[in-house]
């Protein structure tokens, strides 16, 4: 009997040691995983569209956002969760193009990104997402439909909060999605494979999609050089609510904000948001149908600021004739 208290104390010590080890590993990965960039100088106003540049609170931090209202108050609206190594300035041209399509848009910078204060972390981005959605609701009180859109890093940040959003959005769009942050940490070298079991899988998008009942549109490219398209297929299989998967051929990871690619990327999303209906009639009420779209290249793409991301690559910025100026690099 005297051994029982000692055994329990040993077990408790091991549990606490394991917990601290997991938290330490998570903190170490977080410090390397988030790649922030300073605020850019470009706003939709510089591209000829009126915007509201605003600040709002998230915990003890001040976040920056950009809102472009459509001409009609009842127009559909979308809240954008952007990717890593980006700021709201990178999405100014997208906001302009959505305005031209009759869609209101709001994009915000997470803690530590752009001009937002604080430090990025899983916990802070969770608070940021909830605070941004609350502000989004206040900005779009008469919108007929509200959507939330996540790109790359933003897909995980969005899925982390989506089931807590009230009232729930009318639809969710995920682009360049990864199935598990832990898997990505291992594949990119942020965490050793033999230590992966210790890393909390706090952003497991595959599991979270299975709990989602809101209509879901997943967009990915077979040519994505950062996140293999099989991640999108896994989420499509895991989804239990109404959902669609669209796979492009020939688009890069940064297609949403890349000249020559963005117009192809956004076309099915714009149609979905404007109509409120997913494209394929044979998808069924809860079925997922993968639609493969082949695309070419064109110089008449909407202007966009491209980012550098792993693997590093340089890009140039171009503009569509009559669509406003191509804007300078972020931070210029």
Describe the model.
The chain has helices at residues 3-33, 92-100, 122-139, 153-161, 181-187, 205-209, 230-238, 262-275, and strands at 52-58, 61-68, 77-81, 104-108, 146-151, 171-175, 216-221, 243-249, 290-294. It is of the alpha/beta class and 332 residues long. It has one domain (34-294): Rossmann fold (3-Layer(aba) Sandwich). Strands 1-2-4-3-5-6-7-8-9 form a nine-stranded mixed β-sheet, sandwiched between helices. Helix 8 (262-275) links the parallel strand 8 and strand 9 (290-294). Residues 12-22, 24-29, 281-289 and 296-332 have low confidence and may be disordered.
Contiguous uncertain segments of 5+ residues: 12-22, 24-29, 281-289, 296-332
What is the class in the CATH system? Alpha Beta
Shape: globular
Count of the domains:
1
| Helix-strand sequence | HEEEHEHEHEHHEHEHE
Architecture (CATH level 2) name: 3-Layer(aba) Sandwich
Number of helices: 8
User: Helix fraction?
Assistant: 25-40%
* Alpha-carbon Rg, integer: 21 Å
Mean pLDDT: 78
Task: Detail the topology: elements first, then pairings.
Elements: H1 3-33, E1 52-58, E2 61-68, E3 77-81, H2 92-100, E4 104-108, H3 122-139, E5 146-151, H4 153-161, E6 171-175, H5 181-187, H6 205-209, E7 216-221, H7 230-238, E8 243-249, H8 262-275, E9 290-294
Parallel strand pairs: 3-4, 3-5, 5-6, 6-7, 7-8, 8-9
Antiparallel strand pairs: 1-2, 2-4
């Amino acid at each position: 009997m005297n051994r029982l208290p000692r055994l329990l104390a040993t077990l408790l010590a091991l549990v606490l040691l394991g917990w601290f080890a997991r938290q330490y590993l998570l903190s170490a990965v977080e410090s390397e995983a988030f790649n922030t960039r300073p605020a850019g100088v470009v706003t939709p106003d510089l591209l000829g569209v009126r915007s509201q540049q605003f600040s709002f609170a998230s915990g003890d931090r001040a976040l920056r956002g950009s809102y472009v209202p459509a001409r009609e108050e009842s127009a559909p609206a979308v809240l954008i969760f952007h990717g890593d190594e980006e700021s709201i300035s990178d999405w100014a041209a997208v906001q302009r193009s959505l305005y031209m399509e009759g869609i209101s848009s709001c994009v915000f910078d997470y803690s530590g990104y752009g001009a937002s204060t604080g430090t990025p972390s899983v916990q802070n981005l969770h608070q940021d997402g909830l605070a941004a959605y609350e502000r989004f609701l206040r900005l779009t009180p008469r919108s007929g439909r509200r959507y939330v859109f996540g790109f790359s890093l933003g897909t995980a940040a969005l899925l982390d909060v989506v089931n807590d959003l009230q009232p729930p959005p009318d639809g969710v769009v995920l682009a360049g999605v990864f199935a598990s942050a832990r898997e990505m940490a291992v594949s990119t070298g942020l965490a050793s494979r033999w230590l992966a079991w210790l890393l909390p899988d706090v952003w497991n998008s595959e599991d979270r999609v299975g709990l989602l009942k809101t209509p879901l549109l997943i967009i990915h490219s077979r040519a994505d050089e950062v996140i293999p398209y099989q991640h999108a297929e896994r989420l499509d299989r895991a989804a239990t609510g109404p959902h669609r998967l669209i796979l492009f051929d020939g688009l890069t990871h940064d297609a949403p904000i890349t000249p020559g690619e963005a117009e192809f990327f956004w076309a099915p999303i714009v149609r979905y948001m404007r109509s409120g209906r997913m494209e394929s009639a044979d998808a069924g009420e809860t079925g997922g149908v993968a639609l493969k779209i082949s695309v070419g290249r064109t110089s008449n793409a909407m202007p966009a600021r491209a980012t550098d991301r792993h693997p590093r690559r340089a890009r140039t910025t171009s503009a569509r004739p009559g669509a406003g100026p191509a804007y300078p690099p972020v931070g210029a």
